[in-house]
Amino acid sequence: MQGGDVGGTPGVRRGHNSLADTVVLAFLNRGYRIVDYTDVKGCVDFVAKSDSNVFVIRVLSNVDALREESVREFVQLAAAVHGTPLIVGERTKKGSLEDGVVYRRYGVSVVTPATLERILDGELPVFEEFKGKRVVYFDSGMFRAAREAAGLSQSELAVEVGTTKDSIYRYEHGFPASESTARKIIKVLGRDVISPVDLGYKGYVRSESIMEFRRAPWDVFVSVRESLALSRARGILQRKINVLRRGAGVAHDLYAVIAREDTHVPKDVPVVTEEELAEVKKPDEIVKKVRDELDELEG
Q1: Any residues with CB less than 8 A from the CB of 241 and at least 6 apart, and which?
Q2: Mode of pairing for the β-strands spanning 127-130 and 101-105
Q3: Which of 121-125, 178-182, 292-296 bottoms out in mean pLDDT, i.e. has the lowest?
Q4: I want to staple 48 with a disulfide (CB 3.0 to 4.6 A). Which of 27, 177, 206, 261 is the partner?
Q5: CATH 3.30.9.10 fits 134-195, yes or no
Q6: Per CATH, which fold does 9-125 belong to?
Q7: Cβ-defined contacts of 4-10 (< 8 Å, 24+)
Q8: What is the pLDDT of residue 7?
Q9: The pairing of beta strand 108-111 with beta strand 84-92
Protein backbone atom coordinates (compact mmCIF):
# COMPACT_ATOMS: atom_id res chain seq x y z
CA MET A 1 0.00 0.00 0.00
CA GLN A 2 1.36 3.42 -0.95
CA GLY A 3 1.97 5.82 1.90
CA GLY A 4 4.32 4.49 4.57
CA ASP A 5 4.84 6.91 7.46
CA VAL A 6 2.67 9.73 6.19
CA GLY A 7 1.60 12.78 8.16
CA GLY A 8 1.88 13.27 11.89
CA THR A 9 5.17 13.45 13.73
CA PRO A 10 6.94 10.65 11.77
CA GLY A 11 6.71 12.75 8.59
CA VAL A 12 8.15 15.91 10.15
CA ARG A 13 11.85 16.68 10.09
CA ARG A 14 13.81 17.72 13.15
CA GLY A 15 15.96 20.83 13.45
CA HIS A 16 13.54 23.48 12.21
CA ASN A 17 13.80 27.04 13.42
CA SER A 18 11.36 28.11 16.13
CA LEU A 19 8.92 29.67 13.64
CA ALA A 20 8.59 26.48 11.60
CA ASP A 21 8.30 24.40 14.77
CA THR A 22 5.44 26.64 15.94
CA VAL A 23 3.63 26.16 12.63
CA VAL A 24 4.06 22.38 12.73
CA LEU A 25 2.74 22.15 16.29
CA ALA A 26 -0.21 24.41 15.46
CA PHE A 27 -1.40 21.83 12.91
CA LEU A 28 -0.46 18.68 14.80
CA ASN A 29 -2.15 19.86 18.00
CA ARG A 30 -5.40 20.26 16.06
CA GLY A 31 -5.37 16.83 14.48
CA TYR A 32 -3.99 17.75 11.07
CA ARG A 33 -1.76 15.42 9.12
CA ILE A 34 1.23 17.34 7.86
CA VAL A 35 3.85 16.71 5.20
CA ASP A 36 7.22 18.42 5.62
CA TYR A 37 8.89 19.56 2.39
CA THR A 38 11.41 21.98 3.91
CA ASP A 39 14.32 19.79 2.78
CA VAL A 40 13.20 19.89 -0.86
CA LYS A 41 14.02 23.61 -1.20
CA GLY A 42 11.14 24.24 -3.54
CA CYS A 43 8.05 26.44 -3.56
CA VAL A 44 6.34 24.88 -0.51
CA ASP A 45 7.33 24.08 3.08
CA PHE A 46 4.33 22.15 4.42
CA VAL A 47 1.03 20.66 3.27
CA ALA A 48 -1.43 20.12 6.13
CA LYS A 49 -4.72 18.25 5.83
CA SER A 50 -7.70 17.62 8.09
CA ASP A 51 -11.03 16.00 7.27
CA SER A 52 -12.34 19.30 5.91
CA ASN A 53 -9.38 21.58 5.13
CA VAL A 54 -6.08 21.60 3.27
CA PHE A 55 -3.46 24.31 3.79
CA VAL A 56 -0.36 24.83 1.68
CA ILE A 57 2.22 26.70 3.74
CA ARG A 58 5.34 28.78 3.23
CA VAL A 59 7.21 29.87 6.36
CA LEU A 60 9.27 33.06 6.14
CA SER A 61 10.48 35.01 9.15
CA ASN A 62 10.82 38.11 6.93
CA VAL A 63 8.02 37.96 4.37
CA ASP A 64 9.76 40.53 2.18
CA ALA A 65 12.11 37.70 1.21
CA LEU A 66 9.30 36.21 -0.88
CA ARG A 67 9.88 36.36 -4.64
CA GLU A 68 7.12 36.64 -7.21
CA GLU A 69 8.47 33.81 -9.36
CA SER A 70 8.21 31.34 -6.47
CA VAL A 71 4.63 32.43 -5.74
CA ARG A 72 3.40 31.33 -9.17
CA GLU A 73 4.12 27.67 -8.53
CA PHE A 74 3.14 27.97 -4.88
CA VAL A 75 -0.43 29.00 -5.72
CA GLN A 76 -0.55 26.54 -8.61
CA LEU A 77 0.45 23.75 -6.23
CA ALA A 78 -2.24 24.86 -3.79
CA ALA A 79 -4.82 24.73 -6.58
CA ALA A 80 -3.64 21.24 -7.57
CA VAL A 81 -4.16 19.84 -4.06
CA HIS A 82 -7.35 21.90 -3.52
CA GLY A 83 -5.76 23.80 -0.64
CA THR A 84 -5.54 27.34 0.70
CA PRO A 85 -2.12 28.92 0.10
CA LEU A 86 -0.86 30.70 3.21
CA ILE A 87 2.39 32.38 4.19
CA VAL A 88 3.26 32.43 7.88
CA GLY A 89 5.73 35.10 8.92
CA GLU A 90 6.83 37.44 11.65
CA ARG A 91 7.95 40.71 10.12
CA THR A 92 8.72 42.86 7.10
CA LYS A 93 11.62 45.25 6.69
CA LYS A 94 9.36 47.91 8.23
CA GLY A 95 8.62 46.03 11.44
CA SER A 96 6.67 43.22 13.07
CA LEU A 97 3.42 41.86 11.67
CA GLU A 98 0.32 42.30 13.82
CA ASP A 99 -1.70 39.39 15.14
CA GLY A 100 -5.29 39.27 13.86
CA VAL A 101 -4.44 41.00 10.56
CA VAL A 102 -4.15 39.45 7.10
CA TYR A 103 -1.39 40.87 4.92
CA ARG A 104 -0.89 40.18 1.22
CA ARG A 105 2.17 39.37 -0.83
CA TYR A 106 1.57 38.92 -4.54
CA GLY A 107 -2.06 38.07 -3.78
CA VAL A 108 -1.28 35.42 -1.14
CA SER A 109 -2.48 35.81 2.45
CA VAL A 110 0.23 36.37 5.05
CA VAL A 111 -0.42 35.84 8.77
CA THR A 112 1.49 35.53 12.03
CA PRO A 113 1.74 32.19 13.87
CA ALA A 114 -0.81 33.40 16.44
CA THR A 115 -3.24 34.34 13.67
CA LEU A 116 -2.74 30.93 12.07
CA GLU A 117 -3.73 29.27 15.34
CA ARG A 118 -6.88 31.39 15.54
CA ILE A 119 -7.75 30.45 11.95
CA LEU A 120 -7.33 26.75 12.74
CA ASP A 121 -9.61 27.24 15.75
CA GLY A 122 -12.30 28.75 13.50
CA GLU A 123 -11.68 32.38 14.46
CA LEU A 124 -11.19 34.01 11.07
CA PRO A 125 -9.54 37.46 10.93
CA VAL A 126 -11.64 40.49 9.99
CA PHE A 127 -8.79 42.94 9.41
CA GLU A 128 -6.70 43.15 6.26
CA GLU A 129 -3.70 45.40 5.73
CA PHE A 130 -4.20 47.65 2.71
CA LYS A 131 -1.70 50.38 1.81
CA GLY A 132 -0.42 50.52 5.36
CA LYS A 133 -3.87 50.71 6.99
CA ARG A 134 -6.23 48.19 8.54
CA VAL A 135 -9.41 47.71 6.53
CA VAL A 136 -12.47 45.49 6.80
CA TYR A 137 -14.96 44.03 4.35
CA PHE A 138 -18.71 43.81 4.82
CA ASP A 139 -21.07 40.95 4.22
CA SER A 140 -23.04 42.45 1.31
CA GLY A 141 -26.32 40.70 2.09
CA MET A 142 -26.17 41.46 5.82
CA PHE A 143 -25.16 45.07 5.14
CA ARG A 144 -28.11 45.74 2.86
CA ALA A 145 -30.58 43.90 5.11
CA ALA A 146 -29.40 45.84 8.18
CA ARG A 147 -29.58 49.17 6.33
CA GLU A 148 -33.10 48.46 5.07
CA ALA A 149 -34.19 47.21 8.51
CA ALA A 150 -32.99 50.53 9.91
CA GLY A 151 -35.11 52.33 7.33
CA LEU A 152 -32.14 54.07 5.75
CA SER A 153 -31.32 54.67 2.11
CA GLN A 154 -27.68 54.62 1.02
CA SER A 155 -27.72 58.44 0.98
CA GLU A 156 -29.21 58.65 4.48
CA LEU A 157 -26.70 56.16 5.88
CA ALA A 158 -23.90 58.17 4.27
CA VAL A 159 -25.05 61.30 6.10
CA GLU A 160 -25.24 59.45 9.43
CA VAL A 161 -21.74 58.04 8.95
CA GLY A 162 -20.19 61.18 7.49
CA THR A 163 -19.27 59.80 4.09
CA THR A 164 -20.70 59.74 0.56
CA LYS A 165 -23.46 57.70 -1.04
CA ASP A 166 -20.91 56.31 -3.53
CA SER A 167 -18.78 55.05 -0.65
CA ILE A 168 -21.75 53.32 0.98
CA TYR A 169 -22.59 51.74 -2.39
CA ARG A 170 -19.01 50.44 -2.70
CA TYR A 171 -18.96 49.08 0.86
CA GLU A 172 -22.22 47.29 0.16
CA HIS A 173 -20.69 45.72 -2.94
CA GLY A 174 -17.47 44.31 -1.55
CA PHE A 175 -15.06 47.25 -1.33
CA PRO A 176 -13.02 47.66 1.87
CA ALA A 177 -13.62 50.35 4.49
CA SER A 178 -11.29 51.75 7.10
CA GLU A 179 -11.64 50.39 10.62
CA SER A 180 -12.94 53.73 11.91
CA THR A 181 -15.58 54.00 9.17
CA ALA A 182 -16.67 50.41 9.79
CA ARG A 183 -17.20 51.13 13.49
CA LYS A 184 -19.41 54.12 12.63
CA ILE A 185 -21.49 52.02 10.23
CA ILE A 186 -21.95 49.26 12.81
CA LYS A 187 -22.99 51.83 15.42
CA VAL A 188 -25.62 53.37 13.12
CA LEU A 189 -26.98 50.02 11.90
CA GLY A 190 -26.88 48.44 15.33
CA ARG A 191 -25.50 45.20 13.89
CA ASP A 192 -22.09 43.76 13.15
CA VAL A 193 -22.08 43.30 9.37
CA ILE A 194 -18.35 42.77 8.93
CA SER A 195 -17.29 39.71 6.95
CA PRO A 196 -14.17 37.64 7.75
CA VAL A 197 -11.27 38.17 5.36
CA ASP A 198 -11.25 35.79 2.42
CA LEU A 199 -7.93 33.95 2.82
CA GLY A 200 -7.96 32.70 -0.77
CA TYR A 201 -5.46 33.77 -3.38
CA LYS A 202 -6.31 37.13 -4.99
CA GLY A 203 -5.27 36.56 -8.55
CA TYR A 204 -5.49 34.20 -11.49
CA VAL A 205 -4.17 30.68 -11.07
CA ARG A 206 -3.98 28.14 -13.85
CA SER A 207 -5.66 24.96 -12.70
CA GLU A 208 -5.60 22.00 -15.06
CA SER A 209 -5.98 18.26 -14.68
CA ILE A 210 -2.32 17.67 -15.59
CA MET A 211 0.19 20.24 -14.39
CA GLU A 212 3.96 20.46 -14.84
CA PHE A 213 6.10 21.88 -12.03
CA ARG A 214 9.71 23.02 -11.70
CA ARG A 215 9.98 23.91 -8.02
CA ALA A 216 7.53 21.49 -6.42
CA PRO A 217 8.26 18.21 -4.57
CA TRP A 218 7.24 16.47 -7.82
CA ASP A 219 7.51 17.16 -11.57
CA VAL A 220 3.97 16.38 -12.74
CA PHE A 221 0.68 16.41 -10.84
CA VAL A 222 -2.54 14.84 -12.06
CA SER A 223 -5.71 15.91 -10.29
CA VAL A 224 -8.88 13.93 -11.03
CA ARG A 225 -11.01 11.78 -8.70
CA GLU A 226 -7.71 10.47 -7.35
CA SER A 227 -4.61 12.65 -7.42
CA LEU A 228 -1.26 11.43 -8.70
CA ALA A 229 2.22 12.90 -8.17
CA LEU A 230 5.01 11.91 -10.55
CA SER A 231 8.75 12.58 -10.45
CA ARG A 232 11.22 12.00 -13.27
CA ALA A 233 13.95 9.44 -12.72
CA ARG A 234 16.91 11.77 -12.74
CA GLY A 235 19.24 12.87 -10.00
CA ILE A 236 19.04 10.82 -6.82
CA LEU A 237 16.07 8.60 -7.60
CA GLN A 238 15.67 7.11 -4.12
CA ARG A 239 15.47 10.57 -2.61
CA LYS A 240 12.71 11.50 -5.04
CA ILE A 241 10.81 8.33 -4.23
CA ASN A 242 11.10 9.05 -0.51
CA VAL A 243 9.64 12.53 -1.07
CA LEU A 244 6.75 11.04 -3.06
CA ARG A 245 6.08 8.44 -0.37
CA ARG A 246 6.12 11.14 2.28
CA GLY A 247 3.26 13.03 0.64
CA ALA A 248 0.97 10.09 -0.13
CA GLY A 249 -2.35 10.32 1.67
CA VAL A 250 -1.97 14.03 2.39
CA ALA A 251 -0.72 15.98 -0.63
CA HIS A 252 -1.74 13.28 -3.13
CA ASP A 253 -3.38 9.87 -3.28
CA LEU A 254 -0.93 8.02 -5.53
CA TYR A 255 2.61 8.43 -6.82
CA ALA A 256 4.77 7.04 -9.61
CA VAL A 257 8.12 7.57 -11.28
CA ILE A 258 8.51 8.76 -14.87
CA ALA A 259 11.27 6.60 -16.34
CA ARG A 260 12.31 4.32 -19.18
CA GLU A 261 11.15 0.75 -18.84
CA ASP A 262 14.74 -0.42 -18.31
CA THR A 263 15.39 2.05 -15.46
CA HIS A 264 16.03 0.36 -12.13
CA VAL A 265 13.09 1.39 -9.93
CA PRO A 266 12.02 -0.37 -6.69
CA LYS A 267 9.42 -3.04 -7.45
CA ASP A 268 6.76 -1.43 -5.26
CA VAL A 269 6.88 1.86 -7.19
CA PRO A 270 4.76 2.20 -10.37
CA VAL A 271 6.55 3.43 -13.51
CA VAL A 272 5.15 5.66 -16.25
CA THR A 273 7.13 6.41 -19.41
CA GLU A 274 7.34 9.85 -21.03
CA GLU A 275 5.63 8.36 -24.09
CA GLU A 276 2.70 7.09 -22.05
CA LEU A 277 2.34 10.47 -20.40
CA ALA A 278 2.44 12.29 -23.75
CA GLU A 279 -0.16 9.99 -25.29
CA VAL A 280 -2.72 10.45 -22.52
CA LYS A 281 -6.01 11.74 -23.91
CA LYS A 282 -7.83 11.85 -20.56
CA PRO A 283 -6.07 12.40 -17.21
CA ASP A 284 -8.07 9.51 -15.70
CA GLU A 285 -6.20 7.12 -18.01
CA ILE A 286 -2.81 7.69 -16.40
CA VAL A 287 -4.27 7.47 -12.90
CA LYS A 288 -6.01 4.21 -13.81
CA LYS A 289 -2.74 2.83 -15.19
CA VAL A 290 -0.94 3.57 -11.91
CA ARG A 291 -3.84 2.20 -9.87
CA ASP A 292 -3.90 -1.01 -11.95
CA GLU A 293 -0.14 -1.42 -11.59
CA LEU A 294 -0.44 -0.94 -7.83
CA ASP A 295 -3.16 -3.57 -7.64
CA GLU A 296 -0.82 -6.02 -9.42
CA LEU A 297 2.11 -5.14 -7.13
CA GLU A 298 -0.03 -5.60 -4.03
CA GLY A 299 -1.44 -8.89 -5.30
Answers
A1: 231, 257, 265, 266, 269
A2: parallel
A3: 292-296
A4: 27
A5: no
A6: Trna Endonuclease; Chain: A, domain 1 (3.40.1350)
A7: 4/245, 4/246, 4/248, 5/246, 6/33, 6/35, 6/245, 6/246, 6/247, 6/248, 6/249, 6/250, 7/32, 7/33, 7/34, 7/35, 7/49, 7/249, 7/250, 8/33, 8/34
A8: 39
A9: parallel
